[in-house]
Every structure is written in structure tokens, then in C-alpha cells.
Amino acid sequence: MMEYQVIENINISLSYHKLSLEIPPTAKLPLPGQFYTVRCGETKDPLLRRPFSMHRLIKRGEAVHLEILYRVVGKGTEWLSRCKVGEKLNAIGPLGNGFIFQEDVANVILVARGIGIAPLYGVAEAVLMRNQGARIFILMGARTKERVFYEEECRKIGRAFFYTDDGSKGFQGNGPQLLMHLMERKKLPQRFCMYACGPSHMLRDLADISEKFDLPGQVALEEHMGCGLGACLSCACPLRASYIRRDKHWEKPSLQWSEDRRQVYSLICKDGPVYDIQEVNWNEWVV
Amino acid sequence: MNGLCELSSYIGPMRLKNPVMPASGTFGYGEEYEDYVDLNRLGAVIVKTITLKPRIGSHPHRSTEVPSGLLANIGLQNVGIEGFIDEKLPYFDDIDTSLIVSIGGESIEEYVNLGKILNGHTRVDALELNISCPNVESGGIHFGVDPKVTRNLVTCVRDITEKALIVKLTPMVTDIRIFAEICQQCGADAVSLINGLPGMAIDVKARRSKLGRNTAGALVGPAIKPFALYLVRQVCETVDIPVFGIGGISSTEDAMEFLIAGASAVEIGTWNFINPKITMEIIDGIEAYLLENNLHSISEVIGTLS
Ligand SMILES: Cc1cc2nc3c(=O)[nH]c(=O)nc-3n(C[C@H](O)[C@H](O)[C@H](O)COP(=O)(O)OP(=O)(O)OC[C@H]3O[C@@H](n4cnc5c(N)ncnc54)[C@H](O)[C@@H]3O)c2cc1C
Ligand SMILES: Cc1cc2nc3c(=O)[nH]c(=O)nc-3n(C[C@H](O)[C@H](O)[C@H](O)COP(=O)(O)O)c2cc1C
Ligand code: FES
Predict the structure, then answer these.
(1) What whole-number distance in Å separates Cα of residue A201 and Cα of residue A224?
(2) Which ligand has the shortest distance to the CA of B72?
């Protein structure tokens, strides 16, 4: 738990904002996929800390800045959007586990919808750091053209494709449909790893594609959190018992099995928020 | 504690270093907070309610925020008594403070069995009976809302344990004083109150519960504090055994309110989520209050409401 000074807090487009915080020299640095819980205000309403992913880490001389990309959706984010440069924010983190990268990672596809791009941008940067020749494809979209944001930034890190539900920009349809479309037209490499963040039904559809074509993938999940520390058990997510990854980098300290060991819950704040796309029991998770 | 003031007390055979503890279910099994709290400094640690068998708990979407409060439906997810003893209890070997294990069950027999099993573990100093659990024998009605059942339950557990026995009362009764008195008569060493109040929140766009498939949850946090304080006061005026005040405590001032109302100690719940160091800050705060007011012992404050 530390105080982070606000370096920048700007509106990018519509309800999307970017916050930049100075990481104190003694603080741990986050990995892409990890998150912070931020106290939004000093009163009892909003009450709980709000979780936000690390978006990017920027080194400026000696200083390291943590960028958070956020969308104003309610009281907490509304308060955050009014924070001024120079003010201090109380945050806990980095929490949870980051995305996993194969050393020889070559082809990566990022699938985002709206603010889901926040944790994925760092994935592209981390992959390029490991392999400068890696090919990055970004599938980014929203309901309508007006809501598609971060276009320039997406183009900077790879080959960007856009989609909208109404077809007002790019492909008409959703992320998984665009992915299928590109695969059918052989616009994507034969083998790739996907990293995705967005609404749970989008992630479920991507899981179906991943299973059907045997493509590896990872997702960052969201759930309402109480503590962010694995103590309150608010953020339970059902996993598929026989798909749980136990290899290196995939430790899961907080699994809770049912007595017959057929059902299992994992805590997103502790074991996640990143999961192998096949681990999640999507039928149970998506309402 | 720097030893300038007397903060300790005895609850039956258990010593509390000071009157500040985390509330069950908000502090995991203790170790979750080790990066933030020196557990040795706490009055005691109270762990998540344990049942005989492990429980997977409620469906997802277990919590949602409401104005100044939290609605939570965790469904008693816990590792079960065996898991607790094998995986969680050894952690406390190196922790120098009292350990209170909250227990819950579907039948009186289950509580008794849990108590008997814990008799074999001297590291456990006290039991806190979570009687806000559905009683299968009476069709799921909570143990703590029926005076006869409460009497029976507390008597049966008292019979089999010499550890300190605390009964955690539910506010969902017409007159909580009756239940506190029953606990005193049956030999409880203390009562703690309150557990959460039932509540709902609806997403009007989707016309669905904000807790997913869970229609309702327990309302906790600052929103319940005035009510909790009122019930604590009522109970303190009725029984002679120590009372632990719980409900919406977020600061030293809140804790002092409960102590002045007559509580011997306080449990901090939801606020651990907002400030994981809050228990230590309140211990320091209480001590500072005593020093500022030229008092030497916490007993000079407890129940001094004029
Ligand atoms: C691990 C993780 C990482 C996240 N990263 C980002 C990010 O990088 N950028 C971003 O804009 N958002 C992110 N979110 C979602 C963000 O936490 C919510 O949008 C935010 O909490 C909303 O708060 P509010 O007060 O504005 O909204 P309200 O709707 O008023 O919030 C009410 C309550 O619901 C909770 N809540 C509402 N929506 C969500 C949600 N989608 N996920 C979790 N809790 C929610 C709030 O925390 C609060 O407790 C992330 C969520 C998680 C779990
Ligand atoms: C997430 C959560 C889980 C809880 N689990 C338990 C539990 O297992 N056993 C219990 O007796 N009380 C449980 N409680 C209730 C608290 O111990 C406490 O009585 C209640 O939260 C009121 O205190 P507060 O307003 O300070 O949070 C839980 C509360 C929360 C928020
Ligand atoms: S948010 Fe409390 S356990 Fe995950």
C-alpha cells in the first residue's frame, strides 16, 4: 500500500482516460496482466478500492511511470477522472499474476473490445522485447465507430484490424467473428497465441475457437472484488477441473474444490486475473 | 503496544492483548494479510468460518457495492476442518497472539464435532460460533433466530469444550437481548455482534440481481454501524459477559464508540479491504486516546456512556 503521485490524467476520447503515476523507487514493478487496487476518494462512498490493470510502464530517466487506461463507468472512475496532476493516489499492487510468454514467442494475436485493450498493450511490448521479429496482430473494436479508440496506438505496436457491431468502422461483427474471418482468408499465421480481454461472452467465443483449432490462448478476467488479497472470497471463478494448468508460472494457491472434487473455484485476485483460455469453465462463468 | 497503557483483558481462559481483532471472513486465514499487518500485534486473529467438510461456496458474482456498504454472498466457502488443521493452522505456530476459530454447521452435531476436533489443538484459544448458518433440521432457518435452538446449540458446545466460547449473534431477531442472555446462561464466555444484515440490489437495466444467481447477500460495512452500535448497547445493558462490537468500524473513533457503549473489544470487518492496516492503526489510536485523556487502562473507557 503506497502513495503514487499523479503525473498525468487525461481524457483520450469519450469516456476513456489515461492516468500516469510515478512508481516510488522502493515499489515493485508490475508485469503485463497484473493489477492495482486504487482507493477512489477519501469518503465511504465510493467504498471499496477499484481494480485497474497495468497498461504500460514508461521509463523517463530515473523515474518509472505506471500508465493506467480506464473508462469512466460509475462513482469510482468518475472520481478518478477528476484527480489532478501532483495529487497522490493510494494504491495496492502489483497484485495477481501476469500473462505468460514462451521464450520463442513469434506470432501473437491480441483480441480486445473497448477498455479491454488496457492490459493487452503491455503484452505486445513484452513480446517485442523478447523477440524483436515477433509479429503482433491486434483485433480491436466496439459497438460503433465513435467508440473505437486508441487506433493510432494499436497501429504502433502491430498490424491492427478494427471491428464494430454496426459495421460503421472496419469489419461488421465482433472480435471472435473477425478472428474467424481473418483465419478463413489466411490473413493470419498458421500458428499463433492469443491474448484477450473484454466481455465474458467474447472470451467464451474465443475459447471455442481456441479449442476447435487447437490454438493456445490466455485471458484476463474481471470480477467485483472486495479485498484483492485472496481473503474475502468475492472473486471466485469456476474452472474446468481437468484443464487446470499446474506447470511452471501457473501456480494456483487458492483453488477450492467441492467435496466430490468435480467443481472447483479459483480466486481471480490471487490465482488470476490471467488464465489459460481453456481453464475457465465458460458455461458456468458467462451468465 | 509500548506498555504505557493496559489494553489487555481475559475472555474466559483466553487473553486478548488488546481489544482489536479482524472479523471472521474478512481476514482469510490470517496469512493473506501478512504483508500488511504484524499479526503478533492483534488482540487475536479470527479466521474464516470453518465447517466439517470443505465448501465451494456460492455462485460467482458474490459481492457488490452499495452506498457505504457491501453486499456479500460467499456461501461459507472454506477449506473444511481437515484442510484448516493441515494447511492453515501450522502458520500460527510462529504467531504470538490468540487464535479464535469461527465454526459453522448445518446441525448441532456438526458444531459439536468441530469443537471436539479442535480440542486436540492447543494452538486454538477460542471458538466463535457463527450461528447465522442455515439449520438443516429446521428447514434452513438460521440457528441464531430461534431461542430454543440457540440454547441447545450453545449448551451442547459448552459441554464439550474448555476453550473460550464466543457466540456471534445475528441481528435478524426481534429482541437480540434474549439471545445474549441465553448465551450467558449457557456458559458462553462472550458474545459478538453483529453479523451482516440480509440485503438485495437489482440491476434495473437487466432486471437481475446484482449478485448474479445469488438473489441476496449480507449487508456489511459503514452503512450498518449505527444499527450495530445500538444493538451492542442494548446487549451490554443486559448481560455481564464481555461483548465484542462488530459493524462498520473504519476508524479509532468508530472503535471508541463501541467501547464507550460497553463493548470489551471490537472486530473490524469490511474496512480491512479498504485499508489492510486498519487493525494496527486502531490499536495505536486507542492507545493514543488513553494517553491523551490521562487514562491508564482500557477498562476506564469501556461502558462509560453517560
Ligand atoms: C483485475 C481487473 C483489472 C481491471 N482493469 C481495468 C482497467 O485497466 N481499466 C478499466 O477501465 N477498468 C478495469 N477494470 C474494471 C474496473 O475495476 C471497474 O470499471 C471499476 O471498478 C468501476 O468502478 P466505478 O465505481 O466507476 O463503477 P461502479 O459501477 O459504480 O462500481 C460499483 C462497484 O462495482 C465494481 N465494478 C464495477 N464494474 C466492475 C468491473 N468491470 N470489474 C470489477 N469490478 C467492477 C466496482 O469496483 C465497485 O465496487 C478491471 C477490473 C479488474 C477486476
Ligand atoms: C466477505 C465477507 C465474508 C464474511 N464471512 C463471514 C464468516 O465466514 N463468518 C462470520 O461469522 N462472519 C462473516 N462475515 C461477517 C463479518 O465477520 C462481520 O460480522 C460483518 O462484516 C460486519 O462487520 P463490518 O461492517 O465491519 O464488515 C463476512 C463478511 C464479509 C464482508
Ligand atoms: S477480491 Fe477478495 S478474495 Fe479476491
Answers:
(1) 17
(2) 2
